[in-house]
Amino acid sequence: MKIQDIEAIALLLATPKKIVIIPHRSPDGDAMGSTLGLYHFLLKYNHEAVVIAPNEFPDFLAWLPGSETVKIFEKDKENCTKILQEADLIFTLDFNAFHRVGNEMEKVLTELKSTYIMIDHHQKPDDYAAYTYSDTGFGSTCEMLYNFINFLDKKNAIDKTIGTCIYTGILTDSGSFRFPGTTGNTHRIVAELIDLGVENTKIPNLLFENSSYQRLQLLGRALQNMKVLAHHNTSYTTLTQEELNSFEYVKGDTEGIVNYGLSIKGIVFTAIFIENTDEKIIKISFRSQGDFDVNQFARDHFNGGGHRNAAGGRSEVSMEETIVKFENLVAQLTI
Question: Where do the CATH 3.10.310.30 domains begin and end in the chain?
Fold first, then answer.
């Protein structure tokens, strides 16, 4: 991050402000960890900070400290819009384009005159922010938040509460430290957080080992639905709205299912297609290993994007048509 930007932000934060912190729509562990970590940091310096999430976050993140204070735009649009309009500063974390918050909230954000600060690790950021900390070399926005606090010379402010939020985002977005963005510095930061009292043996259980019976049944159905395109080193699975309903789906139940496709020997590229009849879309998650760029694949073909090895997209035609399109595209690839 540029020194002059750090100095300008430090000056902005030198006196108490009304500050809103926003994660992307359908926030994951990194989005919620970074926003809540920044929230607790700002409270220490007497700022009036509020986290506004575009929509509900998964139940398995509800234990994060401060999660009970998060306001949900979809559930309270009038009040959230008022808070946004009165904000002096707005931080956008773990996304870099307004469309990632959904149409209605995007409209509000584009009309505001507030100063925006972006902290994000995805490719091709938009230019809405006055101050941008964007670096695709990081495995998580939470690791960048740790650096951001350090840039401000406030590292001593990081305590167990802030550290717990940061650790959660690093753990989830690194695939439990297995993804390529994990570096020696990632582990050094995590070591410091553990020394602060962050419960590194407890947090994985809260995130990954607290499944409902219905969620496990849904996983079983997704695995039953999995198809392998062996000649193209590709796999994919599907979940229809009917299947989601039959297993009493709640938000977050499909988190991580896509990764199972990469556990098959020889598979380099995998995807999961999830039907959402309310939004009239097929939500898609892509994962890859090695050099295959799912970010570019998602951008080119499925109105999405993300990282080289992890991206998302959407389709506005039926599940059947979406799968036919996907299989035809894969047949043309060299993976």
Answer: 213-331
Residues 6+ away with beta carbon under 8 Å from 230: 266
Counting residues of the chain whose pLDDT is more than 90, the rounded percentage is 88
Confidence of residue 324 (pLDDT cuts 50, 70, 90): very high
Written as one string, the DSSP assignment of 229-291 is EGGGTEEEEEE-HHHHHHTT--TTTTTTGGGGGGGSTT--EEEEEEEETTTTEEEEEEEE-TT
- Distance in angstroms (rounded) separating the CA atoms of residues 79 and 281: 28
Distance CA 67, CA 64 (A): 6
> What token pair was written down for 17?
């402000």
DSSP H or E run through 167: helix 160-173
Predicted local distance difference test score (pLDDT) of residue 82: 98
pTM, 2 dp: 0.88
On the CB side of 324, CA atoms within 13 Å amount to 5
155-157-159 Cα angle (round to 5) = 105
Q: Is 292 left (phi over 0), alpha (psi -120 to 50) or beta?
A: beta
- Looking at residue 114, what is its pLDDT? 94
Domain with CATH 3.90.1640.10 in the chain: 3-207
At residue 329, what is the residue type?
L
Q: d(Cα 70, Cα 63) in Å, to the nearest integer? A: 12
Q: Within 13 Å and on the Cβ side, how many CA atoms surround 127?
A: 0
CA dihedral (259, 262, 268, 273) positive or negative: negative
- pLDDT average, residue stretch 149-178: 96
3-207 belongs to CATH 3.90.1640.10: yes
What CA–CA distance (Å, rounded) separates 161 from 174?
A: 20
What's the whole-number mean pLDDT along residues 39-59? 97
213-331 domain in CATH 3.30.70.1350? no
300 and 270 Cβ atoms separated by less than 8 Å? no
Look-up of token digits 């972006």: 118
